[in-house]
């Protein structure tokens, strides 16, 4: 066990032998920190939190009561292999959030980026790859092997199917069920997850130029109604567009998909 002397640990907390507790860490009452857990500097673990498995948590994360991080995957194929959960810096992980370790078949690591907000009751399943500045709202469920790129927002009570990719800056509306890949900067709404257009609010908040927004709108129309297959339309956009945002969408499509795409 390696506990930095500056860490503040409530007497009722359980720290198993082998855990690494960094400087400035605070651990509240009745929390459990497992033997393979590594907590970075200034992490705050509030009361009644369970962190177990081979779990690493980056600096300045805050974990709220009744969160369970690093438990085994909810996958019947899991046979006890050595897998991990890696959480980046400055994430806020609210009450009753669950995040599982990976599986051997999915690469072995569930990975969370930096500066995310994971609201109460949401679930991050095995082998998910979550990028930076992502928001997952209350009781949303992110299935195994899902990829969420930077600045994605997943609305409350939404579900994202296994192996789906959601591109940078996309927003998923509350209660949607997403079963196919979502283009970068897309707006998905409805119970069965329709691609309704662009996340215009998000684009404007990030200061994206009007010319790029206009180009993105034209690109969606070209993907919807242009000649050739969906992949061929994307390839033409990549070659012809002068907008980096449009090329981002085209390259996302050309990268291939296990689930197909939500189309405009």
- Rg: 20 Å
Can you name the CATH architecture of the largest domain?
3 Solenoid
Widest beta sheet: strand line-up: 2-5-8-11-14-17-20-23-26-28-29
Share of helix among residues? Answer: 10-25%
Overall pLDDT confidence: 97
Distance between the termini: 54 Å
**Largest sheet data:** 11 strands, mixed
- CATH top-level class of the largest domain: Mainly Beta
CATH-defined topology of the largest domain = UDP N-Acetylglucosamine Acyltransferase, domain 1
By oligomeric state, this entry counts as single chain
Number of helices: 4
Morphology call:
elongated
CATH homologous group name of the largest domain: Hexapeptide repeat proteins
Outline the structure in words.
The chain has 264 residues and is of the alpha/beta class. It is 17% helix and 27% strand. The chain has 2 domains: 2-145, UDP N-Acetylglucosamine Acyltransferase, domain 1 (3 Solenoid); 204-254. It has helices spanning 200-205, 210-225, 230-240, 244-254; strands spanning 2-3, 8-9, 14-15, 20-21, 26-27, 32-33, 38-39, 44-45, 50-51, 54-57, 62-63, 68-71, 84-87, 92-93, 98-100, 109-112, 117-118, 123-124, 129-130, 135-136, 141-142, 147-148, 153-154, 159-160, 165-166, 171-172, 177-178, 186-189, 194-198. The strands form 3 sheets. An 11-stranded mixed β-sheet has the order 2-5-8-11-14-17-20-23-26-28-29. It has a 9-stranded parallel β-sheet with strand order 1-4-7-10-13-16-19-22-25, with no helix packed on it. Strand 28 (186-189) and strand 29 (194-198) form a beta hairpin. Helix 2 packs antiparallel against helix 3 and helix 3 (230-240) runs antiparallel to helix 4. The longest helix has 16 residues, at 210-225.
């Amino acid at each position: 066990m390696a506990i930095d002397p500056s860490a503040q640990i409530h007497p009722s907390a359980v720290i198993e032998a082998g855990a690494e507790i960094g400087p400035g860490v605070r651990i509240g009452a009745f929390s459990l920190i497992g033997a393979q857990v590594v907590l970075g500097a200034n992490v705050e673990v509030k009361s009644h939190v369970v962190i177990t498995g081979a779990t690493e948590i980056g600096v300045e994360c805050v974990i709220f009561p009744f969160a369970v991080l690093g438990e085994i995957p909810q996958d019947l194929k899991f046979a006890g292999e050595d897998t991990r959960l890696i959480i980046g810096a400055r994430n806020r992980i609210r009450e009753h959030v669950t995040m599982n370790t990976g599986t051997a078949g999915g690469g072995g690591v569930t990975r969370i980026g930096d500066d995310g907000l994971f609201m109460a009751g949401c679930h991050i399943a095995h082998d998910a790859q979550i990028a930076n500045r992502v928001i997952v709202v209350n009781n949303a469920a992110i299935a195994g092997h899902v990829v969420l790129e930077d600045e994605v927002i997943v609305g409350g009570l939404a579900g994202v199917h296994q192996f789906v990719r959601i591109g940078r800056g996309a927003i998923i509306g509350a209660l949607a069920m997403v079963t196919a890949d979502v283009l970068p900067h897309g707006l998905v709404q409805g119970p069965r997850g329709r691609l309704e257009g662009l996340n215009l609010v998000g684009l404007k908040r990030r200061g994206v130029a009007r010319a790029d927004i206009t180009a993105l709108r034209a690109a969606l129309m070209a993907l919807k109604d242009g000649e050739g297959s969906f992949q061929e339309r994307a390839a033409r956009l990549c070659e012809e567009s002068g907008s980096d945002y449009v090329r981002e969408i085209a390259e996302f499509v050309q990268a291939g998909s296990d689930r197909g795409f939500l189309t405009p």
